[in-house]
Amino acid sequence: MATTIFIPRLAVSMTEGTITEWLAQDGDTVSAGQPLYRLETDKTDAEIESPASGILRIEAEPGEALEVGTPIGEIE
Predict the structure, then answer these.
(1) Cα–Cα distance between 55 and 74 in angstroms, integer?
(2) The pTM is what?
């Protein structure tokens, strides 16, 4: 079963975030808890960890502002 990766809400007032860098490549095997990407918001920069273990499928490219809850990839 695949796990969908979403832009998380890091603060109550957060409405969007920008992926600045993927720390793993499409098709890589990742582990739960492994740093997966860097997310920039109007108040912070954070490394977001993988929610599951499996093969990463990236659906969003760095640089675009995305709303909280937007799907950005899957872990199969």
Answers:
(1) 8
(2) 0.92
Confidence of residue 20 (pLDDT cuts 50, 70, 90): very high
60 pLDDT higher than 90: yes
Which letter does DSSP use for residue 1 in this model?
-
The full set of domains in the chain, from first to last, is 3-75 (2.40.50.100)
Cβ contact 76:63 at 8 Å: no
Long-range contacts of 29-33 (CB under 8 A, 24+ apart): 29/53, 29/54, 29/55, 29/56, 30/54, 30/55, 30/56, 30/75
Torsion region of 33: left, alpha or beta (phi above 0 gives left; psi -120 to 50 gives alpha): left
Q: What is the mean pLDDT of residues 1-12?
A: 95
